[in-house]
## 1
Amino acid sequence: MSCLERLLDKICYTPASDCLWFVGDLISRGPDSEAVLRFIKSLKDQATVVLGNHDLHFLALSAGLHQNKTANRLDRLLQAPDLDELTDFVRHLPLAHFDSDLNAAMFHAGLYPGWSLHQGLSLAREVENILRSDQWLDFLAHMYGNTPARWSDQLTGWGRLRFITNALTRMRYCTPDLSLELQFKGLPAAAPAPLKPWFDLNRQSLGNTRLIFGHWSDLGIYNQRTLYGLDGGCVWGRQLAAMHLQSENGNIVTVSCDR
Ligand SMILES: [Mn+2]
């Protein structure tokens, strides 16, 4: 049984009545990305997903814009008979999600500290719109790179979309002037000054909404106040986590993923 199946078992997942949220990087972090995609696709409205950097990279690979260097882990997916349908499914997924009844928002990497929640959601729509348009290949070709590092409402064109994508799907650290620092990937205790985890900057922008993020597998499961980092490092053989959104205190359940 896969880690995901064991986790769903442990939380007594009931397909007829339960909705699942997935915090992104469905692809290339585990041994069977195509099964994960097909499963989530089959859930239709019962699943909510936000895209991660690895999911976007998969789109670029499937379009032939990059060579597959990830130790051939994606070979099977890239040769799948339903590749076109899976690609189409992925490119119509959102990059941010907010549910006012549950008072919870979800972003793969996090909410850029220079943005309000509302701004983060509306800027995510800009990237979603281009991914769903006939310019999606152009966007993927211009997506890679670490600049611009700092947000401005005046940004336009590919630079604007690249910043939004980096902030939503790759961010870990920022400088106090809110420049993204995408090179350093270590733990906060080892971070060179003046880098700070994004969630330690401009905390008032987070408000009281519960914010769920993934991406930072080395950080492990993180819960501070209304912030929930749920990547428990399954990719490194550590944990896969689920949180019960209807519980006010976000009851977190894990399974261990030692290989
Ligand atoms: Mn990621």
## 2
Amino acid sequence: MLKRGVTHSNDPFHWPVLGTTGKDGCNLRTVILRQLLLPDRILVCYSDARATKAQDIGNYSKVSWLFYHPEKKVQLRISGQATCHRDDQFADDQWAATKITHRLDFCATQPPGTPVHKPSSGLPDFLLKKTPTLLESKRSRKNFMAISCTIDSIDWLMLRALGHRRARFDWDEDRLRATWLIP
Ligand SMILES: Cc1cc2nc3c(=O)[nH]c(=O)nc-3n(C[C@H](O)[C@H](O)[C@H](O)COP(=O)(O)O)c2cc1C
């Protein structure tokens, strides 16, 4: 299901919620699941490097993910250790894989969350109402960050009218412990 979530943009697992810990408590936001790297159990999403989640992960690397598939009635609660990649090979490779049209997400002049006087996309004038050219999109590379997260545990829940099912998977290094749980 996670693999399908990466490749199918209309699949509910394409938009998980990523939870981080900030100084005032937990911060939740929807992100797009970009990759699942196996056998390393790594989930990948992208962010503006200036966003709150980047600071949160810098201060405390443990994160949580929430996935729910309403048709299959399956919930996954995943926790793991996240790393922010800005200037390394991993970030370069992920950046190379982004579509130019998606790079608009990293082109805002000011950091995400900056208060402004009127509704604004934050994009510079020369990019309004157009997709960036390859050259223009390269300017936003400095704002791009890939977040990788190594999965430590998965809490799996499947809802069924005649009785739900729940299981937990924990990895200690590469050793897996799995157990059924009362839902
Ligand atoms: C459907 C959907 C997909 C989103 N995908 C992403 C994403 O992949 N990466 C991202 O940084 N923000 C994404 N966002 C915006 C975030 O939810 C959030 O508003 C933004 O990242 C700022 O969060 P932060 O300040 O907590 O870092 C998405 C929002 C929606 C509604």
